[in-house]
Task: inverse folding
């Protein structure tokens, strides 16, 4: 990667990190029909959530990213479950502003850096954290956060690396009741989860339910950060 590419990629990462931190909650989405993308994202926005991780787990995912990025510029749209370099290219072309994955694939990390797509790899062990730091990724997805012991595990596992300024986005098993335990930690940039807009709720086009759960989640962020 050239010096200019590195500079641009870092600039972008900083800007996106700020947007993710300001929102505090990322709605993780699996969507079956791209026609639902706009009303779903609007419901989240009305409920105070402006960051979406749209997972590449359904055929409608890339079109949905494109629709949201074109129609709702106030939404920060990211691609989730990015497992290959080709998926990273497709996500970037569709308008994704960041990407995440459940795990850490150095090939995909390096590719995202080379195309200027901010990427948060998934980590669940100290070795994962060290590899992520070595690859230049200081924001990591902690996955699956609840199954590996939640905030206590995060605190213990990250202690040796805190002086390096790393940040985490815990995902996996989070919900309205436990999200606050993570958000109180200065190590946590934001939390995320699929409970806010479940796949079946999107398919049922229950936009009121999605807005209500977005509002409940964004209220926790406001309360804890006021
Ligand atoms: C994911 O990538 O699926 C996220 O980590 C969401 O996990 P959750 O469904 O437990 O919220």
Result:
């Amino acid at each position: 990667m050239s010096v200019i590419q590195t500079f641009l990629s870092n600039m972008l990462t900083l800007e996106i990190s700020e947007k993710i931190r300001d929102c505090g909650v990322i709605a993780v989405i699996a969507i079956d029909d791209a026609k639902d993308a706009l009303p779903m994202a609007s419901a989240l926005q009305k409920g105070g959530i402006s960051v979406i991780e749209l997972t590449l787990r359904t055929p409608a995912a890339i079109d949905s990213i494109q629709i949201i990025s074109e129609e709702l510029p106030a939404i920060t749209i990211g691609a989730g479950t990015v497992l290959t370099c080709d998926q990273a290219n497709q996500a970037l072309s569709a308008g994704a502003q960041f990407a995440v994955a459940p795990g850490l694939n150095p090939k995909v990390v390096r590719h995202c850096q080379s195309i200027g797509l901010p990427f948060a790899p998934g980590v669940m062990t100290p070795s994962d954290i060290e590899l992520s730091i070595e690859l230049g990724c200081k924001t990591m997805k902690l996955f699956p956060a609840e199954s590996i012991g939640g905030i206590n595990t995060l605190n213990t596992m990250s202690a040796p690396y805190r002086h390096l300024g790393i940040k985490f986005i815990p995902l996996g098993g989070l919900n309205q009741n436990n999200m606050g335990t993570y958000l109180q930690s200065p190590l946590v940039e934001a939390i995320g989860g699929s409970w806010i807009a479940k796949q079946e709720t999107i398919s049922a086009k229950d936009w009121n339910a999605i807005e209500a759960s977005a509002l409940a989640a964004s209220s926790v962020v406001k309360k804890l950060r006021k």
User: Anything to note?
Assistant: Residues 3-23 form the longest helix (21 residues). The two ends are 40 Å apart (CA to CA).
